[in-house]
Design a protein that fits this description.
423 residues; alpha/beta; seven-stranded mixed beta sheet; four-stranded antiparallel beta sheet; 13 strands; 43% helix; binds pyridoxal-5'-phosphate
């Protein structure tokens, strides 16, 4: 008998708590004590800083007033599946039709369902490192973990070369672009090279009668891109990958409605029936009022596009000040990777010598205590090397919060590096 409670299953005993949420809870406690801390930790939005579209709120109230309170169909309301299918076609050239759209209460249930669809215990689940939460899903599915490390040179995205090295062991490959935690996005060329590796392998497996590699493409931040960056969907660079691709999306990030719980999966329609049954058994469908409201909103791409444009501007203001200020701290061991999408910026605090420490965790605590800067080390995203890389999230901070935090950071670094602030 290993560690844990003897009454629980091995799966339950092996279940880890989210490290990000643990850090966020300690930050909340510090703020409640009155400490000055900028919460750059969670991938959530402060509703005071980022509002969901008004049309969505009105739609929810109207649906409640119209007593839309009973069970929705397990796959989603037909009008919602129609409008999401039209949106996916319009925005990403992905044509699964309404039968290929299945909604869930956020991206998580459809993410879980997509793994359950394909993985037997012991099958290989490949994912990038760093990446959000994939290692928890490896555990839940009793899969073999295939981490594919990104590097600063690849903007921390897994590359075609890295994937090719492990392709024979892979049953499901999950990719995420824009990537949480790094805020970087695949280019057309990079994604095409990966699709080519998958398709070459799948042609061979078909001849040998083996199950194919499935690509799960998590694009929950797809509408959030920096200027001059274009989000790319796999079918746009490799149409034949359609049959092997499951796309995940949600309003959690794109409409900043993390608490409204609506996500969806787009997949070849012939694969839909078991997913519908699974979502039904889990009871993981979104509430009827949000389905009604989203069905209306997603049938109006022009409203959505305006909303996305404004949102990008707000994110970009926050990213600009971060880049300016972090850029000025390069003499103090600070650097960052150019943000391309999502609400994240990858930054490095190479303070090991200066602070006489050896772990990212020690640097994280120093930043929190000395500068009131709360960030998440890449260890929380599976990257174990102690190299000083962190995620900054801008969803819960104002431009002023960032400016204040950067002032505190600069002062703390100057003291640590032995300078007086105005010397
Ligand atoms: C890459 C990625 N996928 C999926 C999710 C889950 O989204 P949801 O809140 O809709 O379950 C998140 C949430 O942080 C995410 O960052």
């Amino acid at each position: 008998m290993g560690e844990g409670d003897w009454r629980l299953s091995e799966m339950a005993n092996g279940m880890e708590r989210s490290r990000i949420l643990s850090i966020a809870a300690s930050v909340r406690a510090m703020i409640a004590e009155g400490k000055q801390v900028a919460p750059f930790t969670v991938g959530d939005f402060s509703p005071d800083q980022f509002e969901v579209p008004n049309q969505l709120l009105t739609g929810i109230s109207e649906a409640i007033a119209q007593k839309e309170t009973n069970y929705p169909p397990a796959a989603g309301l037909p009008e919602l599946r129609e409008s999401l299918a039209a949106w996916m076609h319009y925005a990403y050239d992905l044509d699964v039709g309404s039968d290929g759209i299945i909604v869930g209460s956020g991206a998580r249930p459809v993410l879980y369902a997509s793994f359950r669809l394909f993985l037997e215990p012991g099958d290989g689940l490949a994912h990038g490192v760093p990446a959000w939460n994939n290692h928890y899903y490896v555990h839940l599915n009793d899969s073999v973990d295939i981490p594919i490390a990104g590097t600063p040179e690849s903007r921390f995205l897994p590359t075609a070369i890295g994937i090719k090295e492990r392709i024979k062991e892979i049953r499901v490959l999950i990719l995420n672009s824009p990537l949480n935690p790094t805020g970087t996005c695949y280019t057309k060329g990079e994604l095409k090279a990966i699709c080519d590796v998958i398709m070459e392998e799948n042609h061979q497996r078909k001849e040998q009668g083996e199950k194919p590699v499935i690509l799960v493409y998590d694009q929950v931040y797809s509408t959030m891109t920096a200027e001059h960056i274009e989000h790319v969907h796999p079918v746009q660079v490799c149409p034949e990958i359609f049959d092997y691709t499951i796309t995940l999306d949600a309003i959690s990030k794109s409409l900043t409605g993390t608490g409204l719980r609506l996500g969806w999966m787009a997949l070849p329609p012939s694969l839909a029936p078991p997913v519908i049954a699974l979502i039904g058994h889990m009871g993981a469908w979104p509430a009827r009022p949000i389905q009604k409201a989203a069905a209306k909103l997603y049938s109006k791409p022009e409203i959505l596009e305006n909303y996305f444009m404004e949102l990008d501007e707000r994110i970009s203001k926050r990213m600009s000040i971060l880049q300016d200020r972090l850029g000025q701290l390069s003499d103090y061991g600070v650097s960052y990777v150019q943000p391309e999408g999502g609400i994240y910026l990858t930054t490095r605090f190479d303070l090991f010598t200066q602070l006489d420490v050896s772990t990212n965790e020690e640097i994280r605590q120093w930043l929190l205590e000395e500068a009131g800067v709360a960030i998440v080390p890449f260890q929380a995203f599976g990257l174990e090397e102690e190299t000083g890389w962190f995620r900054i999230s801008v969803g819960a901070v104002s431009v002023e919060d960032i400016a204040d935090a950067m002032n505190r950071l600069e002062s703390a670094l100057m003291i640590a590096f032995g300078h007086a602030r105005n010397a």
